[in-house]
Amino acid sequence: MTDASTSPRIIRLPPQLIDQIAAGEVVERAASVVKELCENSIDAGARRIDVEITAGGRTAIRIVDDGCGMSPQDLRLALERHATSKIRCADDLWGVQTFGFRGEALPSIASVSRLMLQSRPADADEGFLLRVEAGREMEARAVGMPQGTQIEVRDLFFNTPARLKFQKTEATETSNVSEALLRLAVANPDVHFRLRSNGRVAMDLPPHRDLSERVRAAMSRRGAGVLHEAVGDENGVCVQAFLAAPDCASTTARNTFLFVGRRFVRDRSLLQAVCMGYGETMEKGRYPLAALFLDVPGDDLDVNVHPQKLEVRFAQPQPVYAAVRHVLSSALARAPWMQTQGPRAYSLPPGSLSKAGMAAPSSARSASHGGTSPQSLQTLNFDNVFPGHSAPVSAPMVPAAALLVATAAAEPNPIPSAPAVAYGAAADSGALSPLRYIGALSNTFLLLEAHDGGLVLVDQHAAHERVMFEKLRSGFHERRVAQQRLLFPIPIEVDDAAMASLAVAGSALERLGFDVGAFGAQTLLVRAVPELLVKADPKPLVLDVLARLAEDQAPELVGAHADKVLATMACHSAVRAGDGLDPPRVQGLLQQLDGVDWRSHCPHGRPVLIRMSLSDIERQFGRI
């Protein structure tokens, strides 16, 4: 009997087992095979790649390209592990510009399938064929064939039944193959990609003139309508993106394509940067239909961190993510879907903000509103626009929670309900206020007649929320959020988490216009609230703001975190669905909505308005 203590504990694995282990890292399913082999075809200079699969790729995968081809010696070397033409030394790993460079794909695929590889370079009279089964060479001979390479992979995972158990249905695996090919096609517009599944053409993308044309052709398969292009350069990072409207967003990131150096990658932080670029137009938990292309200096990028090359590592990630956010945010402010009509969004002129934080329209803009005088379109205060808000702020006020205000500042330039608008006059095509107000649906949706006879529906809560958010954000960034002192402080009983949040976020609350302090172990005392929110119920307002502040566990309010908090405050101050508004106050709301950018969505990403063209309405009634 052999003594266990003397038997070797470390053994050298056989080459075949090594290859199968490597295959488990590189080859997950048929889509992995298609991805790896098509990347090799692109690196070989192919301008046409035909892919054919049977039974989702499990039975057969055939890839034919017109690339440079390989000699018989190169064919045999290509089937050895860590053999590649892409790199020569360690320095070549930084900023590598090719797709396949690890030298693992072909030998890994060959170790778990029956593979036939044939290729002919341009300077050869004939091609050469190799047939390999489970990593062992079974046949080698000369063949007649056109220039390029043809690879056939049959019975994938026939010798690794454990791997077969993890394969999905044929339809799912076919979809995965199509997805892998589409990602390659999007980033390589000069290559013709064609996919056949069980003899049926599933994808056919001929060469396109440029990246923009290819992206639009490919993304149309996902239901993308207008794609807005964003281009910019920041911190040495070149950003180019093609962005669909927020309405095309989905609950998964499947339709968000991220490319670094033409290589498709998965990067949560990069995905988050894209979502943050959409700002408040994108609902939380949804992801846009978009294609992002990044170019980063080679010495700042490591592409050799994942066996399937699906991940990259940035030497300085934060500047990269910031560049994406800034370029996308700037471009999306000018996106066509940000308008009701017309091609541009309005930007407020500097120095036109009132004490309340809302901008007064310029004289040029006022003239476009049917010739209305600039004086008549000065800043409106929403205390004068909505029911129950008609009393001047200079009078003592009673908030929703029966708060008595100790002092109240006089309202600057108080303006009554908005004057009538000459609807027939030439008005700015991007404005809402010149449109004829028809009425309200369920005291929630404002119905407007567009200039072309169509119908525009405005959600009054979302619209007011957007206006209030812009006022709050303007005041916040200029550090001039006015406070309203309460005659009688309001006690609020809270839990330990809220008390802990107060200890961290006290300075942030003060900057937001609150005066909140501890009053015992489980009680908060509210002494002041932002002047714009004086009519809101302070208890849910303070608790919601504290909860938002606690999300990032950060004492400083910056960027998207600040916007989330301000959006919460705006929601508490906005008119509610079901509140009746008379026509003058509706007109005042529309005029203020015209004065802000991003007016197509509320801060939480919900649409402010939708539009129905006259032709759509006529079609519904069978008139056309």
Write structural notes for this entry.
The protein has 624 residues and is an alpha+beta fold. Helices cover 30% and strands 21% of the residues. Helix 1 crosses helix 4 and helix 11 crosses helix 14.
Feature tags:
eight-stranded mixed beta sheet; 624 residues; five-stranded mixed beta sheet; elongated; 22 strands; single chain; alpha+beta
What number is the mean pLDDT?
76
Terminal CA distance: 93 Å
Number of strands: 22
Strands side by side in the biggest sheet? 5-4-3-6-2-1-7-8
Largest sheet: 8 strands, mixed
What percentage of residues falls in helices of 4 or more residues?
A: 25-40%
Strand content: 15-25%
Structural class: alpha+beta
Choose one word for the global shape. elongated
Low-confidence parts, pLDDT < 50 over ≥5 residues? Answer: 340-429
What is the overall number of helices? 16
Radius of gyration over alpha carbons? 32 Å
A few lines on this structure:
This protein is of the alpha+beta class and 624 residues long. Helices cover 30% and strands 21% of the residues. The chain has an eight-stranded mixed β-sheet with strand order 5-4-3-6-2-1-7-8. Strands 9-10-13-11-12 form a five-stranded mixed β-sheet, sandwiched between helices. Strands 16-17-18-22 form a four-stranded antiparallel β-sheet.
Topology:
Blueprint: H1 15-26, H2 30-43, E1 48-54, E2 60-65, H3 72-78, H4 105-111, E3 114-120, E4 127-133, E5 136-143, E6 148-154, H5 161-164, H6 170-187, E7 192-197, E8 200-205, H7 211-219, E9 228-234, E10 237-243, E11 256-260, E12 263-264, H8 268-278, E13 290-295, E14 301-302, E15 313-314, H9 317-332, H10 363-368, E16 436-441, E17 445-449, E18 455-459, H11 460-477, E19 483-493, H12 496-511, E20 515-518, E21 523-530, H13 538-551, H14 559-573, H15 583-594, E22 609-612, H16 614-620
Helix pairs in contact: 1-4, 2-6, 6-7, 8-9, 11-14, 11-15, 12-13, 13-14
